[in-house]
Amino acid sequence: MPYKETMQTKVAHSQTMTPAVIEKPMLEALKGRVAPRAPIWLMRQAGRYLPEYCALRAEAGSFLNLCYNPSMAAEITLQPLRRYDFDAAILFSDILVIPHALGQGLAFVEGEGPQLPPLEKLSDIENLDMAGFEQKLAPVYETIQILKRELAADKTLIGFAGAPWTIACYMLHGRGGGTFDRTRQMAAADPAGFQTFLMHIADVTARYLVSQIKNGADTVQLFDSWAGLVPDSDFESHIIAPTKHIIDKIRAAAPDVPIIGFPRQAGKHYAAYAHETGISALGLDPQADIQSMPKNICLQGNLDPEKLLAGGDTMRRAALDILQAAEGRPFVFNLGHGVIKETPPEHVAELAALVRSYTRTV
Ligand code: CP3
Q1: FRET partner for 314 with CA separation of 20 to 30 A, picked from 116, 255, 339, 360?
Q2: In the chain, how long is the greatest CA-to-CA distance?
Q3: pLDDT at 110
Q4: In this predicted structure, what is the pLDDT of residue 18?
Q5: Burial class (CB within 10 angstroms; exposed 0-12, middle 13-18, buried 19+) of 294
C-alpha cells in the first residue's frame, strides 16, 4: 500500500526534523524561572479524599501492598492528574519505606497511623539490613519507570524521601501522633551517637534518592515534617547538617536535578536552612510568611489545608493572597501540608482552575 507508506515516511520525517521540545513548567520554576502562570501540585494529592484511591486501597488490602505494587502505585500516582490539570505527579509511596526496607517492622493501623517496633538503642542502626535495602525498594523504582513512560511530557515527576530527623522520629519512637519524646530524649542523652545515627540515615536516603533520579524522577522532595520539634540550639546538627549531606551526595551524582526541602514549622530557621543546605526550592508550611523568605530561591506552598477543606470564598481569598505575595519570584503553588481526607474533590478542582487562571507579572 504505497499511500500508507508515504504517510508513514512523512510522519517519521517530520518527527526527526522537528523534535518537539516540551517544557515542564514546574521544573523551570524550581530552576528559578518566573513564568506568567504558577505551576501547581498538592502534597497528598493522591489519597483518601479521592473515591478512586479508596477503591484501589480496598482491593490491595493494605497500604504497604499498594506502595510495593508498581502498577497500582503508578495508577494511584496518576489519579489526581486525570481529574485536575496539575503540573506534577508525586510518586505514590511513603517516607517510612526506608525503615521498612532496612528491616524494621512497619504496620499502618487503620485510624492510628504508622506503627514501628522502636529500635532499642542508637547503635542498632549499624545492624540493619543494608544488603536487602535496594532489593526491597526495587518495586518503587519500577513504579517510577512506569510513570516516566505514561506521564505527558509537560508534567514533572517528583520523587521523595523523609529527611533524617523525621525518619529518626519514627524509628526511635515507633509511632506518630505525639511529640516523639523517646527520640528527643535519646538525642539529648547521647548527642554524638545521635549525630552518627542521623548521618547513617542520610547516607541511605541519598542512595535511595539518587536511585529514584536514575530511574526517572525529575526532582525530589525531602519531607522534614517534624523539624518544628527540634530545639533552636540543635537545628544546625539535627536538620541542616544531615540535609546538606544528602544534597551534596545527590548533587555529585545528578548536578542538574533540583531538590525541594520542606522543613515543616522551621519558623525562624527557614532562611538558614535555605542558605546552608544548598536546597533548590523551599517548601513552606501555612505559618511561613512568603514575603520574608530569602529572595534568591524558588518557594513552594503554602495554602492552609483547612482553607482547601472549607472551600468557597475562604479558599479563594487565601489562594489569591498567596499568589500576590509570591509575585515576581519563582514559585510553585501548593498546600502548606497534605490534603485532609475529608476535602471535597470539587474544592481541589476549583483551586486548580483558580491558580491556572491567575496571570503573574513577569
Ligand atoms: O503526597 C502524595 O500524594 C504521595 C504519597 C505520600 C504519602 N505519604 C501517602 C500516604 C507521601 C509523600 C507521604 C509522606 C509522608 N508519610 C510524610 C511526610 C508528609 C507529612 O504528611 O508530614 C509522613 C510524616 C508520612 C508517614 C505517614 N504515612 C503517616 C503519619 C501516615 C498516617 C497518617 C494518615 O494520613 O493516615 C501515613 C499513611 C499514608 N501515607 C497514607 C497515604 C495516602 C494513608 C494510608 C491509607 O490509605 O490509610
Answers
A1: 360
A2: 80
A3: 81
A4: 58
A5: middle
Name the pTM for this structure.
0.94
**30-64 tens-digit pLDDT:** 999 999 999 999 999 999 999 999 999 999 999 99
Distance, CA of 349 to CA of 345 (rounded, Å): 6
* Contact by Cβ (8 Å): 66, 72: yes
CA 166 to ligand 1 centroid distance, Å? 13
Going from the C-alpha of 90 to that of each of 65, 150, 157, the distances in angstroms are 18, 13, 6
How far is residue 89's CA from residue 86's CA, in Å, rounded to a whole number? 8
* Contact by Cβ (8 Å): 167, 99: yes
Ligand 1 atom closest to Cα of 225? Answer: 22
Phi, psi of 282 (to 5 degrees): -115, 120
Domain boundaries, the chain: 3-357
Protein residues whose CB sits closer than 6 Å to any atom of ligand 1: 43-48, 57, 63, 90, 92-96, 108, 113-114, 160, 176, 223, 225, 338
What is the number of the ligand 1 atom nearest to the C-alpha of 57? 47
Q: How many CA atoms lie within 13 A of 328 on its CB side?
A: 6
CATH topology of domain 3-357: TIM Barrel (3.20.20)
Within 13 Å of residue 104, how many CA atoms lie on the same side as its CB?
27
Q: Which residue has the cell 472551600?
A: 311
pLDDT for the residue numbered 351: 98
Low-confidence stretches of the chain (pLDDT < 50) are 1-15
Atom in ligand 1 nearest the alpha carbon of residue 77: 3
Taking only the tens place, the pLDDT of each residue in 197-222 is: 999 999 999 999 999 999 999 999 99
Q: Whose CA is nearest to atom 45 of ligand 1?
A: 63
* Total H helices, total E strands in the chain: 17, 9
Q: What is the pLDDT of residue 19?
A: 58
Catalytic residue (choose from 48, 182, 251, 316): 48
Distance CA 362, CA 33 (A): 10
Cell numbers for 238, please give them: 539535627
pLDDT in the model for residue 176: 86
